[in-house]
Design goal:
Blueprint lengths: L1 E8 L4 E8 L9 E7 L2 E8 L5 E6 L4 E8 L3 E9 L4 H4 L2 E4 L21 E11 L2 E9 L9 E7 L5 E3 L8 H4 L7 E9 L6 E9 L6 E9 L6 E6 L14 E7 L5 E8 L4 E8 L9 E9 L7 E10 L7 E9 L13 E8 L4 E8 L7 E8 L2 E8 L14 E2 L3 E2 L1 E3 L2 E3 L10 E8 L6 E3 L5 E7 L6 E7 L2 E8 L2 E8 L12 E3 L6 E7 L2 E6 L4 E6 L6 E7 L5 E9 L7
The chain binds beta-D-fructofuranose.
Beta-D-fructofuranose binds next to β9, β13, β17, β21 and β25.
Length: about 575
């Protein structure tokens, strides 16, 4: 069972791969791959146990590269090539994926996802030298969560992405054990002060016999593709905060007092806690002082706050007043009324660099699939992105392909956070499938492509329902006296435990809906992002049709566009 990859490569090309002994072998199993260039042996990759080992090859000259391995003995996971000089512009060239980490086809087009493997939280979202950098929680070897790496991609517009080499790798002992719970957990990035790269902060999670342990670490990157100078970030743990294993997701940003701030998510005996640290120098890894609890949420007991982030957001009603928004997720939280789980909150308030005075709290996303949201100050103002999934739907035994949400703007209006889609998305509008009107009850067939629908609603007394055709889902967006709802049910699935969640914004009275459809995703932005619902579709089959159920006059305008990824330039 000799397998091989053959490809021409140029001098200077770097190849990354992971290999391990095939599961059938035990004892002193050796995994091996032989590399040759134009027929001459140039390297051998070996791994001596059942865990994946990361291996590299740098081509000193160009030629025809052949990588050969015996599939009876060796499992080769992802393998890709790149030119370090041009990796940010050209990305990686995928040479091989395995039966375990290859994504189901066809894949989403409009929404970002990793080129192979498992993905969760956005990390280190940053803008540097004309490019957005999106790092993310990553397990390259299967479509299920495993020891955490950081994936990496870059974009000029947050819509079109170029995949870069994997950025952070877990410690070798963690990487070698697919069942290990540890690795490089979530974090953030800030620019280096000399304008020459990024500093990244992240959590190192270790599973130990005496309990889990989380501590913070930092690396810098000057070439923006590989980490250097790993350093520990010593942080005081307040005594009332317990759970050594729930002390994570450093988010570093510049505060209104000109000093650097770091948020961490944790919990105590009765609440989800966001901790605040402060430093005069965001680059100094050992200069962080505990300020205290920035925020405590006791609505869900001792559930950990995850992935807190905080950002200054313009108040469109009062441009002079800087508003700050804190966003955090609460793992294991549950809304009693709708049975939705793992909720994310956005708190609008005033922040002086040490104290946060909240003025308004809301949910970030009523369909709950905008988890671990991360925001950045872009040249066009604050923007953010989330993981379009929720841990409550995840199963250890089944693959769970996901995407990131669409990128959003962030602004405060009427004292509330609005997160509309970034304006660049409108540039993707192509063929109009409906213009201004949509006959009630008539079914419009949708192309197998991303689609945007927009509806202006009159003050309606009855319900307006936008019903989508899908082979595996009962899917609709409904505005009624109950509020704004994404009706979602997997056809033929029996609800086995508890109540099925209702993806409902119960107070919502929207007058405009913008709905984005992609394979595996629906996102609803109501009234310029005042209410947003992102829902992962547990099927990669396309949405095939739409029809409108409403009383005449309730929908005053309806537009539908096919979205074309070629319409805007990278
Ligand atoms: C949130 C989270 C983070 C953690 C990461 C691990 O989705 O649980 O708190 O750092 O995922 O992958």
């Amino acid at each position: 069972m000799i397998r091989e990859i053959q490809t021409p490569i140029a001098a200077g090309t770097v190849v990354h791969a992971w290999l391990k002994a095939a599961e059938v072998l035990t004892g002193n199993a050796v995994a091996k791959a032989i590399l040759s260039l134009d027929g001459n042996a140039v390297a051998t990759w070996e791994a001596h146990d059942l865990g994946f080992r990361f291996v590299t090859f740098v081509a000193e000259r160009g030629g025809e590269l052949r990588i050969a391995w015996d599939a009876a003995e060796t499992e080769l996971s992802a393998t890709y090539a790149f030119d370090p000089e041009t990796a940010l512009a050209d990305g990686i060239r995928l040479l091989h994926t395995s039966a375990h980490n290859t994504l189901p086809e066809p894949s989403p087009q409009l929404h970002f996802r990793s080129p192979f493997g498992w993905m969760n939280d956005p990390n280190g979202l940053s803008f540097f030298d004309g490019r957005y950098h999106l790092f993310y929680q990553y397990y390259p070897h299967s479509l299920r969560w495993g020891p955490m790496h950081w994936g990496h991609a870059v974009s000029r517009d947050l819509i079109h992405w170029t995949h870069c080499p994997v950025f952070l790798l877990p410690e070798p002992d963690v990487a070698a054990d697919a069942k290990a719970k540890g690795g490089c957990f979530s974090g953030s990035a800030i620019p280096l002060p000399d304008g020459d790269g990024l500093r990244v902060y992240f959590t190192e999670h270790q599973s130990r016999r005496d309990g889990d342990m989380e501590r913070q670490r930092s690396v810098v990157t000057r070439d923006l593709i590989a980490p250097q100078s790993l350093a520990e970030v010593p942080l005081e743990r307040p005594v009332e905060s317990y759970g050594r294993g729930d002390f994570r997701d450093p988010y570093v940003f510049l505060g209104p007092d000109g000093r650097w701030k770091m948020l961490l998510g944790t919990r105590d005996k009765s609440a989800a806690i966001v901790l605040l640290y402060d430093s005069a120098d965001g680059q100094s890894t050992d200069g962080w002082q505990l300020v205290g609890r920035l925020f405590a949420d006791d609505a869900h007991g001792a559930a950990p706050a995850e992935c807190p982030c905080m950002i200054e957001v313009p108040d469109v009603d009062n441009p002079e007043r800087a508003r700050w928004v804190l966003i955090y997720a609460v793992l294991t939280s549950r809304d009693q009324v709708t049975a939705r789980r793992n909720l994310t909150y956005a708190v609008v308030g005033d922040f002086d660099g040490r104290q946060f005075a909240p003025t308004h709290t809301q949910e970030l996303d009523f369909a709950t699939d905008c988890y671990a949201f991360q925001a950045l100050q872009s040249p066009d103002g604050p923007r953010g992105i989330g993981w379009l999934a929720n841990w409550t739907d995840f199963s250890k035994d089944e693959d769970f392909p996901t995407t990131m949400t669409l990128p959003r703007r962030m602004l405060v209006k009427n004292g509330e956070l609005h997160t509309p889609p970034i304006p660049e998305l409108s540039g993707l509008r192509g063929v109009a499938l409906a213009q201004g009107v949509l006959s009630i009850g008539k079914t419009i067939l949708l192309p197998d492509a991303p689609v945007e629908l927009s509806f202006d609603l009159a003050q309606a007394e009855g319900a307006v329902e936008i019903v989508f055709g899908h082979e595996a889902l009962d899917l609709a967006v409904r505005v009624s006296d109950d509020g704004l709802e994404i009706r979602y049910r997997e056809i033929g699935q029996m609800q086995t435990q508890g109540t099925a969640p209702r993806y409902l914004a119960s107070q919502a009275t929207p007058r405009n809906l913008r709905i984005f459809l992609d394979r595996g995703a629906i996102e609803v932005f109501a009234d310029d992002g005042r209410w947003v619902g992102s829902k992962r579709l547990a099927s990669t089959a396309p949405v095939t049709s739409v029809s409108l159920q409403a009383k005449t006059g309730d929908v005053v305008c309806a537009d539908i566009w096919r979205l074309d990824m070629q319409n805007t330039k990278r």
